[in-house]
């Protein structure tokens, strides 16, 4: 399961007031640098597709390793669906049952390498803990991965994963250590930011440049900008963002613009945001459907609105909406509709408000649903029940 399951921080959207009022300047707490992302499809459609895949896998696959991999991927996605729907207990149960099932399958098949598939649900449990505000528990679960990465075996719960077992996930010991380091750094930063542990974020990020790879150090720098700004240290946030500008085409210029906007320097923010928005508007439809680009475009559109560049914000927001439709990301589609409804003229406001209301009343994403959580869709219930049966076998 990629990405943090469940409701994200309240600042993870584009920073748009949904009542059509002012655009309060802010700094996005979610990390924007490139990372694994998956489209957040409508939950019922997503669940139905996974149920069909699970039925095929159970009917056609006999090799234990292939079965472990395929069912594990479906289970990870199903836990993410449950978390997005607000069913955190169901998501946690799926992760725990999947770990137990992978271990039983390894024993039955006498293929110990299958135990490596228990690592991902273990990581997902940490993500769920972070989302449930158990930041200390999440950090301890993640730290266990790093502490043991250099040892001959990784012990997680009842599972003992040898370094050689990692061949079912990626070749070689280096890949094993790299995975552990990547998960430890990125998910720890996300947990700290999500739980507004700003001082701890600074301490964690400050220790990274000399202790990890340059790409991971950049994640630390982005988190450092966010935490510094949230603590009111604009000078430190600005200096960090400026130092990271070389080699950064979008993310750190955007972060620097956010700092300026938070300080009330809207002109400085606009001088960075307008060329950035126009650069993104010149991207191809294929590029705009790329999830990494789409996340950045969505935030740049919101930042333009906050800086008073409403024309740029609206033009980019229209493209974000189109990209979200192409990519099948319901969350970004709703966020773009919020932006467009807030920026629309009197003549257009009714149509955008209606489109937004329809999206918020029908979505099953608990964070975005107008009127509060809805009962899980039948397709979601069916998928969860099907997986419960599999994991009980």
Keywords:
single chain; 393 residues; mainly alpha; two-stranded antiparallel sheet; 2 strands
Task: Describe the protein's topology.
Layout: H1 43-60, H2 64-84, H3 88-109, H4 119-131, H5 135-148, E1 153-156, E2 159-162, H6 172-194, H7 198-206, H8 214-230, H9 234-243, H10 251-262, H11 266-281, H12 285-288, H13 291-306, H14 310-327, H15 330-343, H16 346-362, H17 378-392
Antiparallel strand pairs: 1-2
> How do the helices and strands follow one another from N- to C-terminus?
HHHHHEEHHHHHHHHHHHH
CA radius of gyration is 22 Å
Give the overall shape: globular
Q: β content, as a range? A: under 5%
- Report the uncertain regions: 1-21
Helix content class: 55-70%
Structural class: mainly alpha
- How many DSSP E strands? 2
Summarize the main sheet.
Answer: 2 strands, antiparallel
Q: Name the average pLDDT.
A: 90
Distance between the termini: 22 Å
What's the total helix number?
17
